[in-house]
Design a protein that fits this description.
Length: 261
């Protein structure tokens, strides 16, 4: 069985630059989405939090209503007892019994006053809580509308780009398999260390893409010869000549058009 021919340096450089173009396109798609997924998640958390708060506030209102009912029942019980003790006073045999009943009546009257005071306090609490509930409902309505709008934006972008992104990720994996492992590891390391994710760049006006440091003419000649993988001594990026870069861009743009359909 014939041994598979090893890829030339030029073939590796082309594959590396193609991989960079694919990964840069994925970066571009993700940048279009930007902070939207995080915004949606934050808004979802806000809406959930406000719903929980409203639930607790309504539970609290129900508890206060139950307390008011309890105090009203207590007042009715006290009225019943006062009536009973008053009637008993008409049938007492001595002052001691009369005074004892008077004290019971006085105690029940105090209980009624205290219950009435609590009812008034509870009603004030109800009004305050209703204001808080009204504000929370307004915020919930605003956040829900904002969430709906942001979800719509995100869904539209996802619908437009998700299929292309998935296809590009598959292509990225496919192209990585064309390149020897040590170069892929170096490529990924460089990509992770630079802000714009560019690990492979073309020579532009005598300098590496995005850099102001001039590359010596002799090195430029070596890069154009495509006989070895050369990195920029300042940024560590892998360098390719402008002509190779242009040829690969034309080829990959056709692929991107196809994947975006």
């Amino acid at each position: 069985m014939a041994k598979k021919a090893e890829a030339t340096v030029e073939e590796r450089l082309r594959a590396l630059y193609d991989l960079q173009l694919i990964d840069s396109r994925v970066d571009e798609i993700r940048n279009i989405r930007g902070e939207l997924p995080l915004e949606v998640r934050d808004l979802e958390d806000d809406v959930a939090g406000l719903n929980t708060r409203l639930e607790k506030l309504n539970d609290s209102l129900n508890m206060i209503d139950e307390e008011i009912k309890s105090k009203k029942n207590q007042i009715e019980e006290s009225k019943t007892l006062i009536k009973k003790y008053t009637e008993q006073q008409n049938n007492v045999r001595n002052n001691r019994e009369y005074n004892s009943l008077s004290k019971e009546i006085e105690f029940q009257e105090l209980e009624m006053q205290l219950a009435d005071k609590h009812i008034k306090e509870f009603k004030v609490q109800i009004e305050q809580k209703k204001e808080v509930i009204s504000d929370a409902k307004e915020k919930l309505k605003e956040r829900t509308e904002h969430l709906k709008h942001k979800k719509g934006e995100l869904d539209a972008i996802l619908k437009e780009t998700e299929k292309e992104e998935e296809a590009l990720i598959k292509e990225s994996t496919k192209y990585q398999k064309k390149i020897e492992e040590r170069l892929v590891i170096a490529y990924n390391r460089i990509r992770n260390n630079v802000k714009n994710g560019l690990a492979v760049v073309a020579i532009e006006r005598g300098a590496s893409g995005g850099s102001f440091f001039t590359i010596p003419p002799q090195i430029q000649v070596e890069i154009a010869a495509r006989k070895k993988v050369i990195t920029d001594e300042h940024s560590g990026r892998i360098l390719v000549d402008a002509l190779l870069a242009e040829e690969e861009k034309v080829k990959m743009n056709k692929l991107f058009v196809k994947l975006s359909k």
